[in-house]
Each structure stands twice: as structure tokens, then as C-alpha cells.
Amino acid sequence: MTVTVPTTIPSLPKSPLSNLSARRRQALIVVLISALLARSVPLNATSTLRGWKEDRAARKAERKRRETETPLNTPALEKKLVDLYIPDPSGSRTLLVPHLGRISKVRITPTSSELYASHLSSFPPLDPGEKLGVNKQFWKMLIAVLRVAFPSKTGKEAFLLVLHTFFLLSRTVLSVMVARLDGRIVRDLVSANGAGFVRGLGWWFALAIPSTYTNSMIRYLERKLALAFRTNLTRYIHDLYLNDNLNYYKFGLGLAAAGTADQFITTDVARFCDSLAALYGNIGKPALDLLIFTSQLAASLGPMGTIGLFANYGFTAWVLKKATPAFGRMAATEARLEGEYRAGLGRIGRDGEEVAFYNGGKREKGILLAAYEKLTKHVHTVFKARIPYGMTEDFVIKYFWSACGYCLMSLPILFPAATKALKASPSHARQELHHEVADRTESYVSNRRLLLSLADAGGRLMYSGKDLAELSGYTSRVYALLSSLHSLNNNIYPENPRPASLEEDQPFYDLSNVHGRVIIGPKHLLIRGVPIVAPAGGAAGAERGGEELIHSLDMRVEQGEHTLITGPNGVGKTSIARIVAQLWPTWSGLLERPIHGEGGIFFLPQRPYLSIGSLRDHPHTYAEMKSRGRTDAELMSILKHVHLEYLPSREGGWETRKEWKDVLSGGEKQRMGMARLFYHRPTYAILDECTSAVSSDVEGLMYEHAKSLGITLVTISHRPSLLKYHNRHLRLGDPTSHHTSSTPLTRTPVASTTNLTGLTAPQTPSTPLAAHGWQLTTLNSTSAEEKKELDHEIEELERQLGEVGGWERRLEVIGRELRGEKVHG
Ligand SMILES: Nc1ncnc2c1ncn2[C@@H]1O[C@H](COP(=O)(O)OP(=O)(O)OP(=O)(O)O)[C@@H](O)[C@H]1O
Description:
Elements: H1 20-40, H2 45-68, H3 74-80, E1 85-87, E2 93-99, E3 102-108, H4 113-119, H5 136-149, H6 156-190, H7 194-241, H8 247-252, H9 261-323, H10 327-350, H11 352-357, H12 361-423, H13 426-489, E4 517-520, E5 525-534, H14 538-544, E6 547-557, E7 563-566, H15 573-580, E8 590-593, E9 601-604, E10 613-614, H16 622-627, H17 632-641, H18 647-651, E11 657-658, H19 660-663, H20 666-680, E12 684-688, H21 696-708, E13 712-716, E14 728-732, E15 774-778, H22 784-802, H23 804-818
Parallel strand pairs: 4-8, 7-13, 7-14, 9-12, 12-13
Antiparallel strand pairs: 1-2, 2-3, 5-6, 5-8, 10-11, 14-15
Helix pairs in contact: 1-6, 5-13, 6-7, 6-9, 6-13, 7-9, 9-10, 9-12, 9-13, 10-12, 10-13, 12-13, 17-20
Bound molecules: adenosine-5'-triphosphate.
């Protein structure tokens, strides 16, 4: 009988569990891995370690403090949360975050402007025609975003990554051990070795504990890593989005990337981080598995088998690359459509009352459904594209790979076995049969398990090609957001050539060509030669530039010069405020204004702004109030001036937290705005229709009070009744024809020119101004001197009127003398 014994099968190393030297080898591997990991820690590890230890000690102390506290009930918690955060002179903030009935203190250090400046060159604007996918541009974008998500080689993320890598390596080592043990158990079973079999089972369970722990830790660390990436990106974006350059406003205006910021900052960033953290595990681990398993199998499969294995990898990668649709572009499109749908929902939430009054639910539903349909249609396309791809993937990885595995395994068994069989003597054959079969069984079981793991690793590596493509989509979204914010922050816009269709005399306002001068700090407000232009970004901006509302405005306001701005709807009144507040650019000319806030200039817009927080938070947070020595009594006296003294008792105290924009009436909201003005007492206030919902009597009292506090008012309004609180009047549009009734009927403009440092308005007030004209007049009756002069004039006229009787008598005498009559006396 011919026995096919594969002598060339190098018997697998004895099980590490039963062989001491093998165990030593395993230990050596672990030591080597640890040494490798230790090497990955940079040389300045001592200081890093010290910093890390200090951090850990601080975190431990904070945890202990929280653990010793008894959880609070909601009202007590709310009382403790009187401050949203505690500011620090260094610019950091300690946030008070409620968590499980206790308050966690989280210190947030703002991102430095130097860091933003150093990152600017990494985020050039994305070319709209850029092809999305796993290409050179993708790697560039990924590296740029990683500078934010993974800021330091010695930071928390690096530590997590090292730990993650360690567990990934451990899992591979454990998988090899399990494969060997599997073979060993079956071998003992085949050779009826009961003791060995039981020992094997014992090791089986012993290995189960580190294996399951390793698997759980891998998942945990992957999520921690994703969260750490997200935290870094989110804080960086928040600091860039909500800074003094008003990037949030400009982003909303559509001057940057198309899309809504909330979708970008929430979903897209989260998806990017999850995808990136998972990809490390999905690529790193299988790649490592592939190396280790291949090296383990190479000894069994021989050089031909190993070459075959690599040829197989190459072929699979090529087939899958050919079969992969543009997953990156699809992911980016899906994110954009999700954003549009989300924006629709957000709008209904925000303007719910208005929609309800207009009974606009049906229309909004239509808009929402259309957005949702657009999204589902796209998702459908993605699903469909996945069918052939999934089939190819499954066929290649599950079936083709298994068949190849069997073939490869058969190579050393079938061919060298024949040679060995010829050489084997029949007397030895029977004797060795038992051992050889057992060895072969062990070898087969171990190899099969390794091959299965290899197929699994290879499969995951190939699947991750799709993940990588999707990551490229998310990367492009996060990159677009960061790049847009950087551009906005540095006022960088794409340069647009002047459109040929524009007439010669038409100015072209391109955002990349803004050269007005803005000086913040003077004690006056000066606008000299500034065009009032509504900016336009994107395609609209390229086509016709910004919209000119006023060709050039000159106005100077010194303290005490209360100025009322009137004009027809849409003429550009609020736009002046937008330019002064620097929401819109100063295209040319000069703008000088005080600093924003206390002691400077304050803006009250048409729509009152009320943040979520306590009633007290509206002028200031509790901590800020305390640091400035302001008191509740002072707050109450301010509320009296705006006739809202009933509010704290009606709403349950100063600490009550509510969605104030829904709780207060329109007039109350506007009066709260005035209360904030009185609290901050700026030198100048630009009031834009901010009392339109307040009754005239209260409005008058508030204006008088503002003036008594020394606040110079620049008011935008349609109410002629407000004219009496101002001594100058800026009329926009054509003042001879507009019907806003802001023209004073009883008060005559005494001059059409301003007498302020040579700033002049058009010379003839009666001349109809151009559609985009303006006229600044000084009103007379509020000046004491003018009043005195007028009194003198009246006295003189009355004196002259008193003389009329005498002159009439004299006229009669002269007439009689001329007729020859005799006149006596
Ligand atoms: N965000 C914007 N983007 C582009 N154009 C805008 C924007 N806001 C306003 N405009 C344009 O600027 C014009 C002037 O707007 P503005 O708000 O200054 O008018 P207004 O004089 O204050 O009008 P009203 O009396 O109705 O408040 C509008 O007609 C509009 O065309």
C-alpha cells in the first residue's frame, strides 16, 4: 500500500503552549513588540510623560471630587449652573457641564491665531471641478485635516493610537496561537491522546480571556480615537467659526462653501472621524495579519505557494479596483443632500410661528419631501451601484480565495508526497503511519485556520478599499469647511474678472478687491466715501458682483449728535449698520468707529437676539457680572426703565432658564434689547428699528433715558415721532418723493450740509437726489443757541409789528398832504 506522506511539509513549529522554547519565542515576540512600541514614543518622552502624569493626576482629583459629591436634583443642579462657564484672564474658559447629577469642570483653551496662520497654507480653496476619489488630492486633503485632528505626536491621540496598535498586534498573535492550538487539539483527538486533549481545552479557555478582552479593547479604543479626532476638529472649527471676524455670519451669507454649517460641523465631521478611526483598524490590522499569516504559511506552502498567494492578492486588488464605483463622490453628494434636508427641517423649527400664521405647513412639507426624495433617489443609486460591486467582492474574496487556498494547500501535500512515497520503505510505513496522519491533520487544521484568517484579513483589506473611497468623500467635506473658514478668516475670495456685459459706468464690486480702510478705536463714527454695497459670493458674485445701494456715503457722528436715518424700504438703511459693524466689507473709502461693546459702539438689530440661558445671562453671565461689581438691584432698576420689572417674578427669578425667544412677546423682546443697551452703556448705539413693536410712550421714555445715560443714538426707523429725540437727520433715497413720512412737517431743515469737518451732503436739498442718493440735515430746535436766536428774532418781529399802527398813521398823513389837504400837527 502506498502511503502519501509529505516529507517536504516542514512540520509546523510545536505548539507554543506545550513547548517551552516556543513559549519563549512567543514571549520574545511580545517583548519585541513592546520594544517597538516603546521606540515609537519620541525622545522627549520624559517631559511628555511628566505632563501626561500631571494631567492624569488632575483628572483623578476631579473624578474624586465628583465621586464624593452626592448627585443633585434638577433645581439644585440648575442653581449650581448659574454660570455657563468661568472665564480665565489667559483667555481659557472652564465650562460647567452637568453629568450624572454632578457638575464636571472642563477647561477649554482657545486655539491660537498663530496656529491658524501656520495652517492657512495647508488649506487652499478647493477647485469646484476637482475629481473626488482616492487620488493625490485626497491624500493632500487628508494630511491637512490630520494636522488638526491629530495635532501632536505626543498627545492623547498618539497614546490611543499606540495602545490601539498594541491591541491589534495582540489580536494577531492570539489568532496565530488559536490556530496552532486548534490543530494541536485535533491532533490529540486523532491520536487518542486524552490528557493532551484536556490540556488543549484548558489552554483554549485560557486564551479566550485575553482574546475577548483584546477584541473589546480594540472596539473601545477605536471609538475613543474617533472621539478624540472629533473633539480636536470641533474645537478648532468652533474657534474659527465663532470668532471676532464674524465668520459664522459670512458663512451663512453664502460667501464661502455651499451648504449649511450645521451639517458640516455635526454629521460630516463625525462621519469623517468614525471612518478614519475605523479605517486604521480596517487597514492596519488586516495588513498586519496578512504579513504574519503569510509568513506563518510560507513555511508550509513553500516558495511556489507563497508566490501564488501574493499573485492572488495583486489580482484581487486589480479586480476590485476595476469594479469599484465612485464611492467618494457618492458619499460627498449624500452628505450634501442630507444637509439640504436638515436645513429644511431647521428652518421650520426656527420659523415655526410664522409658518403657522401663514398656514405654510403644506408648502414646507412639499419642500421637505422634495429634499428627502432627492436624498433617497441618490441613496438608491448608491445601493444599486453596490450590487455588482458586492457580487464581485464576495465572489473574489469568499469563493475565489477559498479555491486558491485549497489549491495552495494541496501543492506541498500532493506533489512532494509522491516522491516521499516512492522512497519510503514498507516496513517503516506502517510504523510511521499513525504519527504522520496525526501530524498532517494538525498541520492541515492549523493551515486551514490560518488560511481562513488570511482570507478574512484579505477580505477586510479589500473591503476597506470601499471605506477608503468613502473616507475620501468625507475628507473633501471637512476639508471644504476648514478651507472656507480659513479663507473667510483671512478675507480671501476667488478673484472674478469684470463681466463684459457690465456697462462702463457700472461699478463692479468683487470680494477679492476690497480696499476700504477701517480704523477701530476712535471716539467718533466716521464714514467717508464708502459705497454701501450688498456683497454677493459664489456664482452670483462672479456674474455681477455686489449690489450697490448707495454710491458713496459721507457721515460723521460725534458724541451728542443723535442721528435718525430714514428712507424707503430696501434702500440700504440697515446695510449702513452692517458695514459699520463690519458684517459687510468696506469696499473703498474710510470707516472709523469706536470699539464694539462697553464704552464703544453697540448694535441693536431689527430682530432681537435672545440666547438660551438664564434671565440674568442676557446682559452678562453671572461670573462676568460679579467681576464687574454689578448687582441684581442694578439689573432691576434697568428693567424698570424698560417697563419689564415684572419679568423676574413672572418667570421665576433671575436664574430661570428658558427659550426666551419663545417666552417673551415681540415688544418684550425689544425692550430686553434696550435693557441690554442700558446695562452696557456704550458711547454710541446703532438702533435698527429695535423699538418698532414697543408702544410709543414707552419708546419715548426709553430714548430719553438712553440720552440721559450719555449714549449717542444713531437710529434707523420709519417712525417720525422719533425725530424729536435726534438732532440730525440722514435721509436715504429720494427725499423729495418718498412717502415714509419721515420728513418733518413742522421742523424745517436749516441746512443741507453737515458742518462737520468738511463732510458735505448734496448742496441743494430740493433737487431730487439720484435713486441712490442721501441727504444729511441738522435739525434746529434742539440747539439752545438756535432757540435763543429764534427768540431774538421773534422779539424783533413783535417790536416791528408794534410799530405798524404808527407807520399806518404816518402813511395816511403823507397821502393827505399829497392831495393838498391841510394837515394839523
Ligand atoms: N444678506 C443679503 N445679501 C444680499 N443682499 C442683501 C442682503 N440683505 C439685504 N440685501 C439687499 O440690500 C438691500 C437693502 O437692505 P436693507 O436691509 O439695508 O434695507 P433697509 O433700508 O433697512 O430696508 P427696511 O426699511 O425694509 O428695513 C435689500 O433690498 C437687498 O436687496
